[in-house]
Amino acid sequence: MGLAQNVVFGLVTGSYIAIAAIGFTLIYGIVNMINFAYGEYLTIGAFVGVLSAGMLPLPLPVAALVAMAGGGVASLVLARAFFTPINDTGPVPMLLTSIGLGLALRNLIRLTGGRSARYFDTETATYRFDGLPDLAVGPVDLLGDLFVTSEQLVVVGSAVAVFVVLHAMLTRTDVGIAMRAMGDDESLARVRGIDTQFIRDSVWVVAGVLAGLAGVLIGIQTNVSSSTGFSHILQILAAAILGGAGSPYGAIAGAYVIGLVLALSTAFLPAGMTGISTAVAFFILVVVLLVKPSGIAGQEVREA
Amino acid sequence: MSVGDRLPESIGDRLPDRSGDSALALGGVLVVLAALFVLTPISATLPGALYVFLEVAILFAVYGILVLGLDLQYGHTGLVNFGHVVFFAVGGYTVAMLSAEDPFAGIGLGLPWPLALVAGIVVAGVLGAVVGATSLRLRDDFLAIATLATAEIFHSLFVNFRGVFGGNTGILGVPQPVKALAGDTDTTLLATLLLFGGACAITFAVVTRLTDSPYGRVLRAIRADELVTRSVGKSTFTYKMQAFVYGAALAGLAGGLFALYNGAVAPGYFTIQVTVTVWIGMLLGGASNHRAVLAGLAVIMGLRLLSRFALGVAPVSADAFASIRLIFVGLVLVGVIRYRPAGIWGDEKELGVDS
């Protein structure tokens, strides 16, 4: 397999990690917590997507929208139930709560959804992306033997769409501008009359919607199981911290770095060591934390 | 506001009590009793119904050593180590790899077990020093993530490097010295429980000595206010590092004992659930109070015991039951943090949870 093929895998992986990492980093920057249960939000979204696509059945794009809505609702409800009441206790209790919640959610999904993996049926006509040429039919004569599937194009395209919408939201809408203001200085934002609780809730919804989309995209690429989110949370974390936790644009860059490193590392690791990618992602994370012990540039400025 | 006002009251006037000495005596008695069963022809006969109690009690003693080390790190020094299981695992794996004969998969050098046990403690301590050197300057929640990361890295190494760590099977053929000496199952169980209980009590005594001394006062001062502690001339990093290494070495001891009792190590014994269990025990009982953390651990392990009995009568499969138990464990962690942030027997003022 050529190097170029690995780059394609890296860009695809980077795309869905980026979508999730934006949501994760918004929670970090504005609610000021590391939400370790965030991976389970991806799983919830993926399950809502695969169930609505398979049972109702809905066309895939509609199922993805349902999954995004499900992710947003779940995120807001869980935040109101578990995180909002302990908002003032500091980062450590919030983190520990999210670890406990993640453990409970993961097993709740396993209990109700079963242990076996589920698949998006991308082969049948209902779920074909009719408008797109199926490039997987043969090697694309661009950089030698380069395969690109329509599913991969959907993942990368969704990510680009998310980046555009997110940028517009953060720079053009009142809610987005208020989010950035709260990320910079919460008390100042409150003095300026920003309804901080409303903005927090908005962040939870946006993060949940992004998690839902990321979950569906991962599901399209591989499969959906109760461990879908948990097996990606470490990469999401690494991307967010690598990009400077709290910075959405940094998270995008961090996600593509992680994606490419993971994809290229498989080229150098022996076969059968795919499970090691978790270790690779976390190794990157630890190295980044070593180089920048405070974790975040923005945080240092604020505390000074 | 003076420094004295900022430090919790109990730090200044916490005086040594006799609990360390009585624990030491208890530990000695238990070890002697264990030796009686192991080294003499005396043997025990137990009703079969007691087996499950003994198994959970042995695990409690092992986790007790873990939680005492964790309490030294978090309860006293304020270090949020959420990867405690990695030191437990590294202790266990080191002992297994050095002492196992015919390990089926992975490395087994067949060295004498006492040597392996010492090596397990040392290797866990060294790993603690490496993790500490790289991570202790991090903000609390980033330290938690970095330690969690370390644990996940090692877990995936254990699973993926089959030639070295035996993969998912782990390493079999670890010597079981108590079993070899005691002979029958009943005597082995009882002697192991006495021996591990003794080890746990002696650990309690040592940790209590350490934290009752002026040294322990510095640790608690670091947790209360690191900047102030540094301003009175204490090298807080050195103290944090020492506390971290002591905790890691204790976890290594627990891991080594576990391997020698169990006769095998595998990734399945060293999951994040172990970390969560000892954290719940510590938070439930009340961090920074050694007796309280053991009591908290007893509560959560008691629930584990109850759930074993519940499994027998519950109308669900073992797999579904495992999920239900973990849902419950996760929610207990959430509930403890929300409703009993200082724990059942903890000192709210000392932990500063009301601030």
From TrEMBL, chain A:
- Keyword set for this entry? Amino-acid transport, Cell inner membrane, Cell membrane, Membrane, Transmembrane, Transmembrane helix, Transport
* InterPro entries (UniProt xref): ABC_transp_permease (IPR001851), BCAA_transport_permease (IPR052157)
The superkingdom listed in its UniProt entry is Archaea
Q: This protein is called what?
A: Branched-chain amino acid ABC transporter permease
Keyword Cell inner membrane carried by entry = yes
Membrane topology recorded in Swiss-Prot or TrEMBL: Multi-pass membrane protein
**Gene Ontology CC annotations of this record:** plasma membrane
Query: Where is this chain's protein located in or outside the cell?
Result: Cell membrane
Q: Where exactly are the transmembrane stretches of this chain?
A: 7-30, 36-56, 63-83, 153-170, 203-224, 236-262, 268-291
| UniProt source species | Halorussus caseinilyticus
Give the main location: membrane
